[in-house]
Amino acid sequence: MPTVLVFADSIRSPDMRHAVPLPVPDPFLYVEHDGTRTVVCSAFEMQRIREVDPEIVTRSPDAYGVDELLQRGMGRDEAELETYVRACNELGVTEAAVPPAFPLELADHLRANGIDVHVDRELFEERRRRKTPREIEGLRRAQTACEAALDVARAMLRDAAAEDDTLMLEGEALTVERIKLEIERVFSEHGVVGEEFIVSHGAQTAVGHEMGSGTLKPGEPIVFDLFPRDRETGIYSDMTRTYVVGAPSDELLEYHRLCREALERTTAATKPGVNGKALMRIACDLFAEHGHKTQLHKEPGEVLDSGFFHGLGHGVGLEVHEKPALSRSGDDLVPGDVITLEPGLYRAGYGGVRLEDILLVTDDGAEVVTQYPYDLEP
């Protein structure tokens, strides 16, 4: 196994959170070398790290002479850089793979002191693909929160009444902002965080990651794309459903029917060894058969704003979008992958429909973690 170095906090860095599975707000050094995992961190964090993973050896910068360096008049940042060099020397590290976000300052300092570091994006992406049992538990908690939040949002839609082309609830216009406040409340109650998520409506639903705003109307599509993060593990889930309050148009009914069929077909085909692009092809061929442009059925260089203009899905874990790819490029699925399948159909200026489930790839197929109805009516 290659020697690995990571320097980051474990709140913002998925690579560090995967290596050290708890939130640490300040950057620290993680070293994997000769079967030993070591962190060099503040004494403030050492006990927490040992408790979450007793196999990790914890060392303080004090063990590498930081006090002496500071007493000699060296600045704090420079002294810390030197302690990391000393730690690597003590551990016998002469070269190491680092993730793409590894700090250039530290990389330069290590290289200047005879320690070769090189970026290996694929190594770190592959490390995170096969989810641990603890991470899968976090995924299930995040998905439970998704479903609970959508229950509350749907109840608001069901209780709303149309007045003068506006949805009203308890005497006030029903807005995206009002629904989002309730979703955030449910997220908090379930121990997940949702800094951003989509509640879009009308023409907004055909604009990619438009987060949504404004007053809801009857008869228009309303897309809920929720992707909260479990606080304990940092693992995301991701789910999308589309609703219409009142009578949906024939166009939206057809979009919904085709998206549901695409989701069923691609789910049935998901198993280890299948390439993500092959799954994308299944959905695109179905849509193209019914006259819709897709990423795989367009002219080279053509930019789509209608039809199926995005990928089929993506990996999910410590980032909401990560390996494996399920789009115009794809990766072979492996057991332990967590993926989404999210077919969608849209018309610019009008709106669209998207349905999304999250799946865990197993040894012989896939488990659909999402357990939520697909009805177009809320």
CATH superfamily of the largest domain: Creatinase/methionine aminopeptidase superfamily
Biggest sheet strand order reads 16-15-17-20-21
**Helix/strand structural class:** alpha+beta
**Ends: how far apart?**
51 Å
Total number of helices: 10
Query: Can you name the CATH architecture of the largest domain?
Result: Alpha-Beta Complex
Strand content: 15-25%
So what's the overall shape? elongated
CATH class of the largest domain: Alpha Beta
In short:
35% of the residues lie in helices and 22% in strands. With 378 residues, it is of the alpha+beta class. Strand 3 (36-40), helix 2 and strand 4 (57-59) form a beta-alpha-beta unit.
Structure description:
The protein is of the alpha+beta class. It folds into two domains: 4-129, Creatine Amidinohydrolase, Chain A, domain 1 (3-Layer(aba) Sandwich); 133-368, Creatine Amidinohydrolase, CATH 3.90.230.10. It is built from ten helices and 21 strands. Strand 15 (313-315) and strand 16 (322-326) form a beta hairpin. Helix 7 (133-159) runs antiparallel to helix 8 (176-189) and helix 9 (250-269) runs antiparallel to helix 10 (276-289). The radius of gyration is 24 Å and the shape is elongated. The N and C termini lie far apart (51 Å). The model has no long low-confidence stretch (mean pLDDT 96).
